[in-house]
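chain below, 174 aa
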Amino acid sequence: MLARLLVCALLIGTFGITSAQETPAPAPQQPAARQLTPEQRAAIQKQNQVLEKYAESIIAMIDNGQIGQVWDEASEVAKHSVGRDQFVKTIEGERSKLGKVGSRKLTTINRSLSKGGKLPEGMYVNVNYATQFANQPKPIRELVSFHLDGDKKWRLSGYTVFFFFKQKTAYEIS
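prediction:
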């Protein structure tokens, strides 16, 4: 997991250096953004509520040490990226350093579409929390990610705690 973060940071850093060295091309005219209908906004809001509750249930299982069960119910996307034992070991290690949860507050829910590459192809939703742990002076970012599987069900694709917290971060799936 740390290796993924380092790769992501390196990619972001490399992109920043490369883009700073290139002469920017004039921005093409973008078509006007399509406005969502009230029905579409209501559907997204409902989906957000469902995924927030799902994320809360996953985090509760992790809080209660049921990390193996979390992996058992995860998406194939998650299972192909990390084995069960490594998933359990990594999360137990990260969470043991943090101590007990003092508070947890939902900050954002983000959607993204991957066409493949860094992430397997598909639709993803990230549920982000600002979580205060006993052994950390400031809240840190806790991220629960979901993938829309082929059977049209959302399943866990990742869980991460970041040892720093910023409202906007470069580690969001793009």
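Confidence is low (pLDDT under 50) at residues 1-25, 165-174. Helices lie at 2-21, 38-63, 67-72, 76-81, 84-98.
thats it, cya
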